Each structure stands twice: as structure tokens, then as C-alpha cells.
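Let us work through a complete example step by step.
Step 1: write down the sequence.
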Amino acid sequence: MTATFAPSADDIEALARAALARIPQAFRDHMGNVALFVEDFADEETLASVDLEDPFDLTGLYHGTPIGQKSISDIAAMPDRIILYRRPLLDEWVETGVTLEALITHVVVHEVGHHFGLSDDDMHALEDAVG
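Step 2: predict the structure and record it as C-alpha cells.
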């Protein structure tokens, strides 16, 4: 019998980096300062900031200031971050039956969309471009 293991944080990060690499160059050119992290769950403070209680309800989050709202007069802040939450992603993967790659791509594109201040329609168009 072969043991099957849940994908690790490193596995999730590799899929997320592959999704980021498929984002059109015009967008990638403006993402140099966006850091990518994978954590098992969002902490209580993060959940409260988005009005959620159940950590399984949050698969990813963009922390930062959208590009269109940045100013050269801004005080140096933490770099913008995209955080993916491994356990909720794995649960959604199992529950929905979509491929893990497709799910992670969807979440990554959504969070990248927040970085650019895109509308939901624009996020869907970007997701279509990424594949």
C-alpha cells in the first residue's frame, strides 16, 4: 500500500509561483515587490479584519496598498504580500474536485487582482489569460 500525503506548504508555493509566472508580463512587471507566503491558516486578527470567524473560509489574502493608490510620499511600509492558506485550500480542493493547480491559480489571480485594484470582471479576464 502506498501512503498519500497532503501537499505541503512548499508544494502549494510551487504551484502558486507557477501561476504567477503565467500572469501576463505587463502585470508581472509591476509585481516585483509582492512577496508570496503560504501558511496553514489565517490567524484570528486576520480573520477578524475580513469579518470571518471560520479559518476554513479564507483561502488567500492580499495585504498591501493597490498599485493605483500608492504614492511616492507613502512612508515605507511592509512589502505587499499575497498569503495563501494551505489547509482551507486543501479542503476546498477535496470538496470541489477541481485540480489543485486550477484552485491555486484562481486564488493567486484573485489576490493579484487586488494588488492592481481590478474589478471582479477584470479578475476573471486575467484568470482566463493565465489559464
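Step 3: interpret the result. The two ends are 35 Å apart (CA to CA).
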